[in-house]
Amino acid sequence: MTLKHLNITIIGAGIGGLAAAVVLQRKGAQVTVLEQAEVVSEVGAGLQITPNGMAVLSALDLADELAWGAQRARAVVLRGHRHGNEVLRLDLDQYAGDLRYYFVHRADLIRILADAARDAGVQVRLLQKVERVETCPKPVVHLANGAQCGGDLVIGADGLHSQARRALNETGQPFFTRQVAWRAIVPNHSKFPAEAQVFMGPGQHLVAYPLRDGSLVNLIAVQERRAWAEEGWHFPDDPSNLRAAFASFGGEAQYLLSQVENCALWGLFRHPVASHWHQGAVALLGDAAHPTLPFMAQGGNLALEDAWVLGEALEEQAQDIPAALARYQDRRRMRASKIVDAASRNAWKYHLRAPLRWPAHQILKLGGHLAPQRMVGQFDWIYRHDVTRAQG
User: Fold this and answer.
1) In this model, does residue 88 exceed pLDDT 60?
2) In this model, does residue 297 exceed pLDDT 60?
3) pLDDT in tens, 314-327
4) pLDDT score of 41
5) Catalytic residue status for 209
6) Does 252 score more than 80 pLDDT?
Protein backbone atom coordinates (compact mmCIF):
# COMPACT_ATOMS: atom_id res chain seq x y z
CA MET A 1 0.00 0.00 0.00
CA THR A 2 1.31 3.45 -0.86
CA LEU A 3 2.20 5.98 1.83
CA LYS A 4 1.42 8.99 -0.40
CA HIS A 5 -1.18 10.30 1.99
CA LEU A 6 1.26 10.53 4.91
CA ASN A 7 3.26 13.55 6.06
CA ILE A 8 5.99 12.32 8.37
CA THR A 9 8.37 14.24 10.61
CA ILE A 10 11.57 12.55 11.78
CA ILE A 11 13.55 14.01 14.67
CA GLY A 12 17.27 13.42 14.20
CA ALA A 13 19.52 13.11 11.15
CA GLY A 14 21.66 10.27 12.41
CA ILE A 15 21.92 6.80 10.89
CA GLY A 16 18.45 5.67 11.94
CA GLY A 17 16.66 8.92 11.13
CA LEU A 18 18.17 9.26 7.67
CA ALA A 19 17.66 5.57 6.84
CA ALA A 20 14.01 5.82 7.87
CA ALA A 21 13.64 8.96 5.77
CA VAL A 22 14.96 7.14 2.70
CA VAL A 23 12.72 4.11 3.27
CA LEU A 24 9.55 6.11 3.88
CA GLN A 25 10.05 8.73 1.16
CA ARG A 26 10.67 5.99 -1.39
CA LYS A 27 7.41 4.39 -0.33
CA GLY A 28 5.60 7.61 -1.21
CA ALA A 29 5.42 9.54 2.06
CA GLN A 30 6.37 13.19 2.36
CA VAL A 31 9.18 13.22 4.91
CA THR A 32 10.81 16.09 6.79
CA VAL A 33 13.88 15.52 8.97
CA LEU A 34 14.61 17.91 11.85
CA GLU A 35 18.27 18.18 12.84
CA GLN A 36 19.51 20.48 15.61
CA ALA A 37 23.04 20.82 14.18
CA GLU A 38 23.95 23.37 11.51
CA VAL A 39 25.16 20.66 9.14
CA VAL A 40 24.34 16.99 8.67
CA SER A 41 27.65 15.39 9.54
CA GLU A 42 29.50 13.07 11.90
CA VAL A 43 33.20 13.37 12.56
CA GLY A 44 35.93 11.48 14.29
CA ALA A 45 34.45 8.02 14.71
CA GLY A 46 34.44 4.64 13.06
CA LEU A 47 31.85 1.92 13.24
CA GLN A 48 31.31 -1.60 12.03
CA ILE A 49 28.53 -2.38 9.61
CA THR A 50 27.79 -6.07 10.02
CA PRO A 51 25.89 -8.28 7.54
CA ASN A 52 22.49 -7.58 9.11
CA GLY A 53 23.04 -3.85 8.55
CA MET A 54 24.47 -4.43 5.09
CA ALA A 55 21.27 -6.29 4.17
CA VAL A 56 19.29 -3.07 4.66
CA LEU A 57 21.81 -0.97 2.75
CA SER A 58 21.71 -3.53 -0.09
CA ALA A 59 17.93 -3.33 -0.21
CA LEU A 60 18.28 0.47 -0.49
CA ASP A 61 20.89 0.10 -3.28
CA LEU A 62 23.50 1.82 -1.12
CA ALA A 63 25.76 -1.12 -0.24
CA ASP A 64 28.12 -0.75 -3.20
CA GLU A 65 28.68 2.93 -2.51
CA LEU A 66 29.52 2.17 1.10
CA ALA A 67 31.85 -0.68 0.13
CA TRP A 68 33.85 1.54 -2.23
CA GLY A 69 34.86 3.83 0.63
CA ALA A 70 35.26 1.30 3.42
CA GLN A 71 37.47 -1.57 4.51
CA ARG A 72 36.01 -5.07 4.29
CA ALA A 73 36.84 -6.94 7.50
CA ARG A 74 38.89 -10.07 6.89
CA ALA A 75 39.27 -11.30 10.47
CA VAL A 76 38.76 -10.61 14.17
CA VAL A 77 41.94 -11.16 16.17
CA LEU A 78 42.14 -11.34 19.97
CA ARG A 79 45.54 -10.51 21.44
CA GLY A 80 47.23 -10.22 24.79
CA HIS A 81 47.83 -6.67 25.92
CA ARG A 82 51.45 -6.75 27.04
CA HIS A 83 53.18 -7.95 23.89
CA GLY A 84 50.31 -8.29 21.43
CA ASN A 85 50.61 -12.09 21.21
CA GLU A 86 47.78 -13.70 19.25
CA VAL A 87 45.22 -15.58 21.34
CA LEU A 88 42.52 -16.29 18.77
CA ARG A 89 42.02 -15.50 15.10
CA LEU A 90 38.50 -15.63 13.68
CA ASP A 91 38.98 -15.83 9.92
CA LEU A 92 35.91 -14.22 8.37
CA ASP A 93 37.01 -14.93 4.79
CA GLN A 94 37.29 -18.65 5.45
CA TYR A 95 34.42 -19.27 7.86
CA ALA A 96 31.93 -16.50 7.03
CA GLY A 97 32.76 -16.00 3.37
CA ASP A 98 29.16 -15.44 2.32
CA LEU A 99 28.81 -12.56 4.76
CA ARG A 100 30.27 -9.08 4.47
CA TYR A 101 31.56 -7.03 7.41
CA TYR A 102 32.83 -3.48 6.86
CA PHE A 103 34.78 -0.91 8.85
CA VAL A 104 33.20 2.45 8.07
CA HIS A 105 33.88 6.05 8.96
CA ARG A 106 30.62 7.28 10.46
CA ALA A 107 30.81 10.50 8.45
CA ASP A 108 30.87 8.48 5.21
CA LEU A 109 27.75 6.51 6.09
CA ILE A 110 25.93 9.68 7.16
CA ARG A 111 26.86 11.33 3.85
CA ILE A 112 25.61 8.35 1.83
CA LEU A 113 22.30 8.26 3.69
CA ALA A 114 21.85 12.06 3.57
CA ASP A 115 22.50 12.12 -0.20
CA ALA A 116 20.01 9.28 -0.73
CA ALA A 117 17.41 11.07 1.39
CA ARG A 118 17.76 14.33 -0.53
CA ASP A 119 17.74 12.50 -3.87
CA ALA A 120 14.46 10.87 -2.85
CA GLY A 121 12.94 14.27 -2.05
CA VAL A 122 13.27 14.35 1.74
CA GLN A 123 13.36 17.85 3.22
CA VAL A 124 16.16 18.20 5.80
CA ARG A 125 15.76 21.20 8.11
CA LEU A 126 18.84 22.19 10.10
CA LEU A 127 19.16 24.16 13.35
CA GLN A 128 15.87 22.69 14.60
CA LYS A 129 16.25 21.99 18.31
CA VAL A 130 13.31 20.05 19.71
CA GLU A 131 12.15 20.99 23.20
CA ARG A 132 9.26 18.56 23.63
CA VAL A 133 6.83 16.31 21.78
CA GLU A 134 3.09 16.07 22.33
CA THR A 135 1.48 12.78 21.40
CA CYS A 136 -2.27 13.45 21.50
CA PRO A 137 -4.60 13.85 19.81
CA LYS A 138 -2.27 14.58 16.88
CA PRO A 139 1.51 14.75 17.35
CA VAL A 140 3.06 18.18 17.79
CA VAL A 141 6.80 18.90 17.90
CA HIS A 142 7.67 22.05 19.85
CA LEU A 143 10.93 23.70 18.78
CA ALA A 144 13.24 25.92 20.83
CA ASN A 145 12.60 28.85 18.47
CA GLY A 146 8.88 28.76 19.33
CA ALA A 147 7.76 27.10 16.11
CA GLN A 148 5.65 23.96 15.98
CA CYS A 149 5.40 21.17 13.45
CA GLY A 150 4.10 17.65 13.26
CA GLY A 151 2.25 15.68 10.64
CA ASP A 152 0.46 12.36 10.42
CA LEU A 153 3.39 10.63 12.12
CA VAL A 154 6.36 11.75 14.21
CA ILE A 155 9.38 9.46 14.55
CA GLY A 156 11.88 10.05 17.33
CA ALA A 157 15.31 9.05 16.06
CA ASP A 158 16.94 11.54 18.40
CA GLY A 159 19.28 9.28 20.31
CA LEU A 160 20.04 8.72 23.97
CA HIS A 161 18.40 11.89 25.22
CA SER A 162 15.35 11.66 22.99
CA GLN A 163 12.54 14.11 23.58
CA ALA A 164 10.19 11.68 21.85
CA ARG A 165 11.15 8.95 24.30
CA ARG A 166 10.43 11.33 27.19
CA ALA A 167 6.92 11.81 25.78
CA LEU A 168 6.22 8.07 25.73
CA ASN A 169 8.05 6.74 28.78
CA GLU A 170 8.80 7.65 32.36
CA THR A 171 12.21 9.23 32.75
CA GLY A 172 14.52 6.72 34.37
CA GLN A 173 18.08 6.98 35.61
CA PRO A 174 20.65 5.12 33.51
CA PHE A 175 23.05 2.76 35.28
CA PHE A 176 26.75 3.63 35.13
CA THR A 177 28.55 0.42 34.16
CA ARG A 178 31.80 1.56 35.83
CA GLN A 179 33.38 1.57 32.42
CA VAL A 180 34.60 4.47 30.33
CA ALA A 181 35.73 4.56 26.74
CA TRP A 182 38.00 6.71 24.63
CA ARG A 183 37.64 7.16 20.86
CA ALA A 184 40.40 8.31 18.55
CA ILE A 185 41.49 8.07 14.93
CA VAL A 186 45.19 7.88 14.06
CA PRO A 187 47.21 7.59 10.83
CA ASN A 188 47.88 4.05 9.64
CA HIS A 189 51.67 4.37 9.46
CA SER A 190 52.19 0.73 10.42
CA LYS A 191 50.07 -0.73 7.59
CA PHE A 192 47.47 -2.03 10.03
CA PRO A 193 45.57 -4.85 8.23
CA ALA A 194 41.85 -5.06 7.45
CA GLU A 195 41.12 -6.81 10.73
CA ALA A 196 39.45 -5.93 13.99
CA GLN A 197 42.19 -6.43 16.55
CA VAL A 198 41.25 -6.59 20.22
CA PHE A 199 44.07 -6.17 22.76
CA MET A 200 42.84 -7.68 26.04
CA GLY A 201 44.17 -6.54 29.40
CA PRO A 202 43.12 -6.79 33.06
CA GLY A 203 40.06 -4.59 33.43
CA GLN A 204 40.52 -2.94 30.04
CA HIS A 205 40.77 -3.56 26.32
CA LEU A 206 41.63 -1.72 23.11
CA VAL A 207 39.94 -2.29 19.73
CA ALA A 208 41.59 -1.13 16.51
CA TYR A 209 40.59 -1.39 12.86
CA PRO A 210 41.35 0.52 9.64
CA LEU A 211 39.03 3.01 7.91
CA ARG A 212 38.43 4.37 4.41
CA ASP A 213 41.31 3.47 2.08
CA GLY A 214 43.28 2.02 4.96
CA SER A 215 45.07 5.28 5.71
CA LEU A 216 43.41 5.64 9.13
CA VAL A 217 42.97 3.43 12.18
CA ASN A 218 39.99 3.74 14.51
CA LEU A 219 40.65 3.17 18.21
CA ILE A 220 38.18 2.39 20.98
CA ALA A 221 39.76 1.96 24.42
CA VAL A 222 37.60 0.73 27.30
CA GLN A 223 38.60 0.79 30.96
CA GLU A 224 36.84 -0.31 34.12
CA ARG A 225 36.86 2.34 36.82
CA ARG A 226 34.70 3.69 39.60
CA ALA A 227 34.98 7.35 38.66
CA TRP A 228 31.96 8.60 36.78
CA ALA A 229 32.40 10.17 33.35
CA GLU A 230 30.02 12.23 31.21
CA GLU A 231 27.77 10.28 28.87
CA GLY A 232 28.15 11.05 25.17
CA TRP A 233 31.26 10.58 23.04
CA HIS A 234 31.85 14.18 21.95
CA PHE A 235 33.65 15.24 25.16
CA PRO A 236 37.37 15.88 24.48
CA ASP A 237 40.06 14.50 26.74
CA ASP A 238 43.83 14.87 26.97
CA PRO A 239 45.53 12.03 25.03
CA SER A 240 48.05 11.74 27.84
CA ASN A 241 45.24 10.45 30.08
CA LEU A 242 44.49 7.71 27.55
CA ARG A 243 48.16 6.73 27.31
CA ALA A 244 48.55 6.70 31.08
CA ALA A 245 45.48 4.47 31.47
CA PHE A 246 46.89 1.98 28.95
CA ALA A 247 50.56 2.25 29.88
CA SER A 248 50.83 -1.53 30.42
CA PHE A 249 49.88 -2.19 26.79
CA GLY A 250 52.86 -2.93 24.56
CA GLY A 251 53.69 -3.78 20.96
CA GLU A 252 51.39 -2.48 18.24
CA ALA A 253 48.84 -1.26 20.79
CA GLN A 254 51.37 1.03 22.41
CA TYR A 255 52.50 2.37 19.05
CA LEU A 256 48.92 3.20 18.05
CA LEU A 257 48.32 4.96 21.36
CA SER A 258 51.48 7.01 20.86
CA GLN A 259 49.96 8.41 17.66
CA VAL A 260 46.84 9.84 19.30
CA GLU A 261 46.62 13.63 19.06
CA ASN A 262 42.91 14.09 19.79
CA CYS A 263 40.49 11.85 21.64
CA ALA A 264 37.08 11.83 23.27
CA LEU A 265 36.14 10.18 26.56
CA TRP A 266 32.70 9.11 27.67
CA GLY A 267 31.05 7.05 30.36
CA LEU A 268 29.29 3.84 29.39
CA PHE A 269 25.79 3.77 30.82
CA ARG A 270 23.23 1.00 30.61
CA HIS A 271 19.79 2.30 29.62
CA PRO A 272 16.71 0.09 29.62
CA VAL A 273 15.02 -0.71 26.35
CA ALA A 274 12.00 1.60 26.17
CA SER A 275 8.79 0.04 27.47
CA HIS A 276 6.72 1.98 24.96
CA TRP A 277 7.99 2.52 21.42
CA HIS A 278 4.82 4.18 20.22
CA GLN A 279 1.74 6.07 21.31
CA GLY A 280 -0.86 7.46 18.96
CA ALA A 281 1.15 8.61 15.95
CA VAL A 282 4.55 8.93 17.63
CA ALA A 283 7.20 6.21 17.37
CA LEU A 284 10.77 5.63 18.52
CA LEU A 285 13.67 4.29 16.47
CA GLY A 286 17.32 3.41 17.08
CA ASP A 287 19.00 4.55 20.30
CA ALA A 288 15.88 6.43 21.32
CA ALA A 289 14.17 3.03 21.70
CA HIS A 290 17.05 0.72 22.62
CA PRO A 291 20.38 2.34 23.58
CA THR A 292 23.12 -0.28 23.55
CA LEU A 293 26.67 -0.55 24.78
CA PRO A 294 29.27 -0.75 22.00
CA PHE A 295 30.47 -4.31 22.68
CA MET A 296 28.57 -6.01 19.84
CA ALA A 297 28.94 -3.09 17.37
CA GLN A 298 25.18 -3.08 16.82
CA GLY A 299 23.97 0.48 17.50
CA GLY A 300 23.97 1.61 13.88
CA ASN A 301 23.00 -1.80 12.55
CA LEU A 302 19.94 -2.02 14.79
CA ALA A 303 18.89 1.46 13.66
CA LEU A 304 19.08 0.35 10.01
CA GLU A 305 16.96 -2.70 10.83
CA ASP A 306 14.41 -0.52 12.65
CA ALA A 307 14.08 1.81 9.67
CA TRP A 308 13.31 -1.03 7.28
CA VAL A 309 10.81 -2.80 9.55
CA LEU A 310 9.01 0.45 10.39
CA GLY A 311 8.61 1.15 6.67
CA GLU A 312 7.21 -2.33 6.05
CA ALA A 313 4.78 -2.10 8.97
CA LEU A 314 3.45 1.25 7.79
CA GLU A 315 3.10 0.01 4.23
CA GLU A 316 1.13 -3.01 5.41
CA GLN A 317 -1.26 -0.94 7.56
CA ALA A 318 -1.03 2.59 6.20
CA GLN A 319 -4.66 3.34 7.04
CA ASP A 320 -4.17 2.54 10.74
CA ILE A 321 -0.99 4.15 12.02
CA PRO A 322 -1.34 3.02 15.67
CA ALA A 323 -1.80 -0.58 14.51
CA ALA A 324 1.20 -0.29 12.20
CA LEU A 325 3.35 1.07 15.02
CA ALA A 326 2.23 -1.73 17.33
CA ARG A 327 3.23 -4.21 14.65
CA TYR A 328 6.62 -2.51 14.32
CA GLN A 329 7.27 -2.74 18.07
CA ASP A 330 6.18 -6.39 18.18
CA ARG A 331 8.66 -7.25 15.43
CA ARG A 332 11.58 -5.35 16.89
CA ARG A 333 11.48 -5.20 20.67
CA MET A 334 12.44 -8.78 21.50
CA ARG A 335 15.38 -8.87 19.08
CA ALA A 336 16.66 -5.45 20.16
CA SER A 337 16.40 -6.41 23.84
CA LYS A 338 18.31 -9.65 23.25
CA ILE A 339 21.12 -7.82 21.43
CA VAL A 340 21.32 -5.10 24.09
CA ASP A 341 21.66 -7.79 26.75
CA ALA A 342 24.34 -9.60 24.73
CA ALA A 343 26.33 -6.37 24.40
CA SER A 344 26.08 -5.74 28.13
CA ARG A 345 27.49 -9.20 28.87
CA ASN A 346 30.32 -9.12 26.33
CA ALA A 347 32.92 -6.71 27.76
CA TRP A 348 34.04 -8.85 30.71
CA LYS A 349 35.44 -11.47 28.31
CA TYR A 350 38.17 -9.01 27.30
CA HIS A 351 38.93 -7.84 30.87
CA LEU A 352 39.89 -11.03 32.69
CA ARG A 353 42.43 -10.84 35.50
CA ALA A 354 44.64 -13.48 37.09
CA PRO A 355 44.09 -16.29 37.90
CA LEU A 356 41.32 -16.67 35.30
CA ARG A 357 43.09 -14.86 32.49
CA TRP A 358 45.65 -17.49 31.43
CA PRO A 359 43.31 -20.56 31.41
CA ALA A 360 40.57 -18.57 29.64
CA HIS A 361 42.98 -17.57 26.89
CA GLN A 362 44.12 -21.19 26.52
CA ILE A 363 40.50 -22.27 26.12
CA LEU A 364 40.04 -19.62 23.42
CA LYS A 365 43.13 -20.86 21.61
CA LEU A 366 41.94 -24.45 21.78
CA GLY A 367 38.49 -23.49 20.50
CA GLY A 368 40.07 -21.64 17.61
CA HIS A 369 42.06 -24.75 16.63
CA LEU A 370 39.36 -27.39 17.13
CA ALA A 371 36.15 -25.57 16.18
CA PRO A 372 36.91 -22.38 14.22
CA GLN A 373 33.60 -22.49 12.34
CA ARG A 374 31.69 -22.66 15.60
CA MET A 375 33.70 -19.80 17.08
CA VAL A 376 32.98 -17.59 14.06
CA GLY A 377 29.31 -18.55 13.96
CA GLN A 378 28.44 -18.07 17.64
CA PHE A 379 26.63 -14.80 16.88
CA ASP A 380 24.99 -15.85 13.61
CA TRP A 381 21.64 -15.08 15.23
CA ILE A 382 22.68 -11.44 15.08
CA TYR A 383 24.69 -11.19 11.88
CA ARG A 384 22.76 -13.55 9.58
CA HIS A 385 19.41 -12.01 10.39
CA ASP A 386 18.00 -10.20 7.34
CA VAL A 387 15.00 -7.98 8.06
CA THR A 388 14.48 -7.36 4.34
CA ARG A 389 13.54 -11.03 3.95
CA ALA A 390 12.35 -12.04 7.40
CA GLN A 391 9.43 -10.94 9.49
CA GLY A 392 11.10 -8.92 12.23
Assistant:
1) yes
2) yes
3) 999 988 999 999 99
4) 66
5) yes
6) yes
The domains found in the chain, sorted by start residue, are 7-70+106-173+271-347 (3.50.50.60)
| Range with lowest mean pLDDT among 25-29, 275-279, 356-360 | 356-360
Q: Which residue out of 101, 102, 209, 328 is catalytically annotated?
A: 209
Helix (H), strand (E), coil (C) string for the chain = CCCCCCEEEEECCCHHHHHHHHHHHHCCCEEEEECCCCCCCCCCCEEEECHHHHHHHHHCCCHHHHHHCCEECCEEEEEECCCCCEEEEEEHHHHCCCCCCEEEEHHHHHHHHHHHHHHHCCEEECCCCEEEEECCCCCEEEECCCCEEECCEEEECCCCCCHHHHHHCCCCCCEEEEEEEEEEEEECCCCCCCEEEEEEECCEEEEEEEECCCCEEEEEEEEECCCCCCCCCCCEECHHHHHHHCCCCCHHHHHHHHCCCCEEEEEEEECCCCCCCEECCEEECHHHCCCCCHHHCCHHHHHHHHHHHHHHHHHHCCCCHHHHHHHHHHHHHHHHHHHHHHHHHHHHHHCCCCCCHHHHHHHHHHHHHHCHHHHHHHHHHHHCCCCCCCCC
Look up the pTM and report it.
0.94
